[in-house]
């Protein structure tokens, strides 16, 4: 049987290959020389393992001269032999060839992408994004400031590093080490590093664009957003300090005993985890006592979006006590000097001074940082719920809309849990004072 199979192979001579006319000329074992006019090619006919008859092209049949024809015949027979060997192993030669080609294309694509990533530094990615997106959509002055802020503040070793290799920890270290030239002050006088925030936001856009174009797989600028806030809350910044949350119940007990509208305003602000400006500008028209909610209008919010605050029973009790006083004017917390005006920016800071904790915490730190630390460290709620309570701006607008819609009940429960924690019995109402 083996001899018979061998006898049926290699039927064509080189001369016959050179002289072949239109048609299919068999070389045995399913190998054909197919001639169509001036073109000629090698074809292997076979039955695939699934029983389907197929034809596999084995390349052009070169017939320029005897040497070319001989090489062409040898190559076609070698390929046909390899295909028959696959068939004996239950494999379809066409499928195997297509699979190898696909793997080769994928490997080439990966190598090309890897080479591109190696060449694509953070600097090149940032400048490319700046050229494609920022320059066409911003003023010349803003566009120039946008790229120069990155060039001037991102450390050179990080700026020249392949963008795919930049990690979140090293980016965090670089940004937290910045000494910004620009600072802004909120109503309490707390310093905020606007430069750090601006650099992170711009790098966030660069990394998102790089992910879209396959230049990296992660966004370290997004990953460090919360870590930057945590770092700011714990760094020694003088007037931006925040009281440890374990000491908050004792301070609140003393605050509840303090007299005056400013004391009630500070107590209300702590219970609502609100910013100073939001509380000082609050009016009775924003309060729904029946629903126990406070709707802060967009104009008074940092993110410029209306924010609904769920009032705990303790917060509602403060408002009922204020209603009983029948104070004139529309403000929740009117100035004791001029009722047609709200409390001054310094009023709540003065309360902290009277309580002897001005050197240990700010209004902002007590109302927001202390709350955030308590909520995160105790696992009082999911991080997204905590952020929603603090009305921190969400970069993703779709996600922001979902958060506002979905976290209503969770936000209410979180603020009620915060009020309950602050009102728990304490062994002493004395807050340790910092030595002068």
Task: Describe, in plain words, how this protein is organized in 3D.
This protein is of the alpha+beta class. It folds into three domains: 102 residues, Integrase, DNA-binding domain (Double Stranded RNA Binding Domain); 118 residues, DNA polymerase, domain 1 (Orthogonal Bundle), CATH 1.10.150; 182 residues, Intergrase catalytic core (hpI Integrase, Chain A, Orthogonal Bundle), CATH 1.10.443. The chain contains 20 helices and nine strands. Strands 1-2-3-4 form a four-stranded antiparallel β-sheet. Strands 7-8-9 form a three-stranded antiparallel β-sheet. A two-stranded antiparallel sheet has the order 5-6. Strand 1 and strand 2 form a beta hairpin. Helix 13 packs parallel to helix 17. It is elongated, with a radius of gyration of 37 Å. The N terminus and C terminus are likely disordered.
